[in-house]
Structure formats: C-alpha cells, structure tokens
Design brief:
The chain is an alpha+beta fold. It folds into two domains: about 80 residues, Alpha-Beta Plaits (2-Layer Sandwich); about 90 residues, 2-Layer Sandwich (Alpha-Beta Plaits). The strands form two sheets. The protein has a four-stranded antiparallel beta sheet with strand order 2-3-1-4. A four-stranded antiparallel beta sheet has the order 6-7-5-8. Helix 3 packs across helix 6. The model has no long low-confidence stretch (mean pLDDT about 90).
C-alpha cells in the first residue's frame, strides 16, 4: 500500500462547498482506501491505497464528492514521496528560521511551463518571492498571505490554470502524518 495525500480545492471556505471531514472519511471507504484521515477542516486527506495513479485517485475522490454532495471539487493527489520532494525543494528553507507561517506553496492542477511562469509580471510587495519548483510555486510572504497579491486567484487568472495553496505548517504536518521526513 502506498501512502497518499489529497488536497481538495475550495471546500469549507467562507461557508462554500461545506464538507465535514469526518463524513468524507466515511464516504471514501467504498473506494478501498485504508488509513483514511483528515488534517484540518480545509480539505487535506491522507490515505493508503493499492497500486493506482495519482490522477485516477484524484478523479475517484472528486467523483465521490460530486455524487455525495452534489458539487464539483478539484483534487490533487500526491504520494508521500512526492510531498517529501516538494518540501525538500523549497528554495526558501534556509530562510525559515521559525517563521514558517510566512511560507506557502501553490499547487497547479494543470501543467505550467517555466516559460509561461517567467513571463508573469508578479505583483510582489517588498521582499515577497515566488519561485516555480516543478508544478508548485513556493511563496515567501513576509507580510502574510492575507496581504499578498500572489494568491490562487492571481495565478489562476494569469496562467489560466486552477490552483490551491497550503501554508508551510500544513505541508510539514501532512509530511509528518504521511511518514515523510519532516
């Protein structure tokens, strides 16, 4: 069995697309996932499954949510190994120094080329940084994510792709829960 992490986009935000995480765990049981658990109320799942592709798992979870709750939710699935690689690729990791609340990762649901990302005129404030690492943008927002313009909406509009963001503490917690190297 492989350990997976699923990131659900846009649930339980401002009362929209409300899903009780405990209920979701039960609704995923028919898919044969084991060790299903949630982290926070914002759409983070951990589970084990037999051989499958991350795209198949994401489609199953999304379809299950649509059937059970009547709305579409985009889902990204990562292996625990993928999450380790993403965490280790953070170019800002030497800068964390206990301020991990200032760091975020924006995940893209569709491929984004380095060339397309480099063409962006990033609306950064003083000292903000955004670096594309694979299909994840690592963000450093010294004034906090609530004050940056480098949000999901910005990247979705500028690149024409769907995105979801997690703060660094959440990623480290998911990495630890998945048995990774946090």
């Amino acid at each position: 069995m492989t350990k997976y992490i699923a990131l659900l986009r846009g649930i339980n935000v401002s009362g929209q697309k409300f899903i009780r995480m405990a209920d979701l765990v039960g609704h995923l049981s028919p898919f044969g996932y084991s060790d299903v658990q949630t982290y926070l109320q914002s759409g983070n799942l951990l589970f084990s499954a037999g051989k499958s592709t991350v795209s198949t798992l994401a489609a199953e979870i999304s379809a299950g949510i649509a059937q059970e709750y009547g709305f579409d939710v985009k889902v990204i699935v990562l292996t625990a190994t993928d999450l380790d690689r993403i965490v280790q690729s953070n170019p800002f990791s030497s800068s964390l120094q206990g301020d991990d609340k200032l760091f975020h990762a924006t995940f893209f649901f569709e491929p984004v080329s380095v060339a397309a990302f480099q063409k962006l005129t990033l609306p950064v404030r003083a000292e903000e940084r955004a670096v594309l690492c694979g299909q994840v943008v690592m963000l450093y927002c010294p004034e906090g994510y609530g004050k940056t313009k480098l949000t999901n909406n910005y990247f979705e509009k500028a690149l024409g792709v769907t995105a979801t963001t997690r703060n660094w503490r959440t990623l480290l917690a998911l990495q630890k829960l998945s048995g990774g190297s946090a």
